[in-house]
Design a protein that fits this description.
The complex is a heterodimer of chains A (327) and B (309).
Chain A: H1 2-15, H2 29-35, H3 37-59, H4 73-76, H5 83-90, H6 92-111, H7 114-124, H8 129-140, H9 147-158, H10 163-170, H11 185-210, H12 214-222, H13 227-252, H14 259-269, H15 271-274, H16 277-287, H17 291-318
Chain B: H1 2-5, H2 22-50, H3 54-60, H4 73-79, H5 82-113, H6 121-130, H7 138-147, H8 165-176, H9 180-188, H10 193-201, H11 206-222, H12 225-230, H13 239-248, H14 262-265, H15 272-295, H16 298-306
Helix pairs in contact in B: 2-15, 4-15, 5-8, 5-11, 8-11, 8-16, 9-10, 11-15, 11-16, 13-15
Classes of the chains: A mainly alpha (327), B mainly alpha (309).
């Protein structure tokens, strides 16, 4: 993710007048356009798709200020100003979805975020190359499964008729159906997120660990630092940049908590537990055909997310780290 | 070979490091063992159940954990089911066509953006990057694809997500790291950009090509929500929609004699649970097959782009 940072950094260097090494003097705009026309031709198809499927929908947020009617379209639908938003803020279910989103995000921050870091530390201390790469292959795998598949696996293992409850029943122990329990839902979705993504998450931390010079450890050991002091004074400071970056990313996406994951499990735990901002917009907009209202909910979330990203970066900068982009 | 391409880290404990404590070793082993079990046991149980007879499933009371009576009848059943075979075909076609399409666009775009100082470089790059931070939301996207006539059309599963800006940036970082002398030499030899891309950059970029292809392929193979939005007719569904409807929601799969409560009846000839698990296994297979070929490139392909700096 820091590649965005890299790109911006390169651009900065260029914009501040450092000439690119290969050119001497800048040719005029038209000359450069002609020179680079094949590069531009290469960019064009992807650019067109991005403009159509990312920028046109951004213009489409005008529906949030309309009483949108699918037959009249953007131009024919009546403008109603901020009515959709006023209605939104009066809607109890909207605040419910906001609360669910924030609670699930907070639970994930506490229970999910440290898992890949801990796993990376453990894995890094495994000496055998073969065992280490076997474990890596296994823990990366769930990242490539769909949410449908992950929820199905959880259902079959932990559901009321799942493997674990069947075993419990056989030994006469009380069963425990977490899959349909609205109160435990925030922990269930966190467990699923850990199962699916925590393994993949260790990649960046392993890279950070590999970048720490072994000489530092050796010097510290010679000076009499034990394994815990080496961990505290060398390993954790070495990972600090990446940890802050990951934290910024997580805070920036705090309002997106697994849309498909919630959608799939809505039936099992009910709307009150599973409604998050994204599903709220989807159900009001697409399912109930109340497009303007759904778009208003979506726009509200989009703007809030943007503010969060910027704020999280500010916090990172305050701690002297780069975050997603530099000051 | 591997020793050359992948620098081996210390496989022996350095002399200055104290020997591990018994408790530390045990705790570490236990944790890693639990992690492996948590991932592998469900997969094992699903695959085993898909090969089990109804009698075995009844005895186990659900997923089969120990091999009992084995049969391939579930696979016979699903391959005879038009809905499942068509869904398999749709998923494969979308994955292959979509991945090819996405890769062509991504490679071209990443190369086009990898040259600093080219015309419009900075604004064009920013145009892409902005979309990673702000999107119009689900509703405008849905309205747009509908307005373009994507409802009930297969292309609605491919076009809207065909270009991933993240993948473009990863590949761009990799291309930009391709040896400048090599590219300049190609230029001096009279190769244009197309020629340079084809004969110099691509052959040296295998790791990133493999990893990004896998990302796209997995994205298409797993695509579920777009199918739910745009494909109302179950005759057009990809596999993920089939699993969602017939395994998670427990709706009867037409033509298999499964009823909504079928899995608890147990007196049918066909094992409903094993059929469901066979469909699940079917979606696992391509991922698990493709994975080993790409996995060794993860570190190289991913990290260079994503964690540089």
């Amino acid at each position: 993710m820091s590649l965005i940072r890299e790109s911006v950094r390169e651009e900065r260097a260029r914009a501040s007048g450092t000439p690119a090494p290969s050119e001497s003097g800048r040719p005029s705009g038209w000359r450069r356009f002609r020179r680079d026309r094949s590069l531009l031709l290469m960019i064009l198809p992807a650019l067109v798709l991005t403009v159509v499927f990312a920028y046109v929908p951004m213009l489409g947020v005008v529906t949030a200020f309309q009483s949108y009617d699918i037959y009249s379209g953007f131009t024919g639908s009546p403008w109603i100003g901020l009515d959709n938003f006023l209605q939104l803020f009066r809607d109890e279910l909207f605040w419910r979805s906001m609360e669910n989103t924030l609670v699930i995000s907070a639970v994930q921050l506490v229970l999910y975020f440290p898992v890949p870091i801990a796993l990376a530390l453990i894995l890094n201390s495994v000496l055998s190359d073969r065992i280490r790469s076997f474990i890596q292959s296994v823990v990366y795998l769930p990242h490539f499964f769909s949410w449908v598949l992950v929820v199905t696996l959880f259902q079959e293992m932990l559901g009321g008729a799942g493997a674990i409850n069947t075993l419990l029943r056989r030994f006469g122990m009380p069963t425990w159906d977490i899959m349909t329990n609205p109160d435990a839902f925030k922990f269930l979705v966190t467990a699923q997120a850990v199962w699916k993504e925590a393994g993949w998450g260790i990649i960046v931390f392993l890279a950070a660990l590999a970048a720490i010079s072994p000489a530092l450890y050796e010097a510290a050991a010679v000076d009499g630092a034990g394994r815990w002091r080496r961990m505290w004074h060398i390993t954790l400071p070495g990972m600090r940049g990446v940890i802050v970056l990951m934290l910024v990313l997580r805070l920036g996406s705090a309002l997106s908590v697994g849309f498909e994951q919630m959608l799939i499990q809505r039936q099992a735990v009910g709307r009150d537990a599973s409604e998050v901002l994204d599903t709220f917009a989807y159900f009001y907009g697409v399912v109930n055909n109340n497009f303007g209202f759904g778009a208003a909910a979506g726009l509200f979330k989009g703007v809030l997310s943007l503010i969060l990203i910027i704020a999280a970066n500010k916090v990172a900068h305050a701690f002297g780290e780069d975050g997603l982009y530099r000051r | 070979m591997t020793a050359l391409s992948r620098p081996r880290r210390h496989t022996r404990r350095p002399v200055w490091e104290e020997p591990p404590t018994r408790a530390g070793q045990a705790g570490k082993g236990l944790t890693l063992g639990l992690v492996l079990a948590a991932i592998l046991v469900p997969l094992y149980a699903v695959v085993l159940t898909s090969f089990s007879t109804q009698a075995a499933i009844n005895r186990a009371g659900g997923l089969v954990l120990l091999p009992d009576e084995l049969t391939t009848s579930a696979y016979g059943q699903i391959f005879a089911n038009r809905l499942v075979t068509h869904a398999l075909w749709v998923s494969c076609a979308i994955t292959v066509a979509g991945t090819l399409f996405s890769m062509i666009l991504t490679v071209l775009c990443a190369y086009g953006l990898s040259r600093q100082g080219s015309w419009g470089h900075r604004p064009i790059l920013m145009t892409f990057v902005v979309t990673m931070f702000f999107s119009g939301g689900i509703i405008p996207g849905f309205l747009l694809v509908s307005a373009l006539g994507g409802y009930d059309q297969y292309w609605s599963l491919v076009l809207p997500g065909a270009v991933s800006v993240f993948n473009i940036l990863v590949m761009r970082a990799f291309f930009a790291a391709t040896s400048r002398e090599l590219i300049d030499a190609a230029g001096i030899d009279g190769a244009g950009h197309w020629r340079t891309l084809w004969s110099v950059v691509l052959p040296t970029s295998r790791p990133v090509l493999a990893v990004i292809s896998l990302f796209y392929a997995v994205g298409y193979w797993n695509s579920f929500f777009n199918a739910m939005l745009f494909l109302p007719d179950n005759g057009k569904w990809p596999l993920q929609m089939v699993i969602y409807t017939y395994t998670l929601q427990g709706t009867a799969l037409p033509g298999t004699g499964i009823t909504q409560t079928g899995q608890y009846l147990g007196h049918q000839e066909v094992a409903p649970l094993s059929i469901q698990m066979a469909v699940v296994t079917l979606t696992l297979v391509p991922i698990v097959l493709a994975y080993p070929f790409v996995q060794r490139h993860f570190a190289k392909g991913m990290l260079l782009g994503a964690v540089k700096g």
